[in-house]
Design brief:
The chain is mostly helical and 58 residues long. The protein has 2 helices and no strands.
Length: 58
């Protein structure tokens, strides 16, 4: 297939400059993640900011 390597990926996929930064999600990102997997109705999002800080700070 033109423009693709033997693995089937486009050439652009091999030239992207990507940096992965390990971090916890922000409270709004956390809510989006939880709701996207169906957990929105069972979590206390008001406690999320404190909970996320405690996880990071120990």
């Amino acid at each position: 297939m033109p423009g693709r390597n033997p693995d089937g990926y486009s050439q652009a996929a091999h030239t992207m400059n990507v940096q992965i930064i390990p971090r916890l999600p922000t409270p709004s990102e956390y809510r989006i993640l939880c709701e996207s997997v169906g957990w929105g109705g069972i979590l206390n999002f008001e406690a999320a900011p404190q909970s996320l800080r405690a996880r990071y700070l120990g």
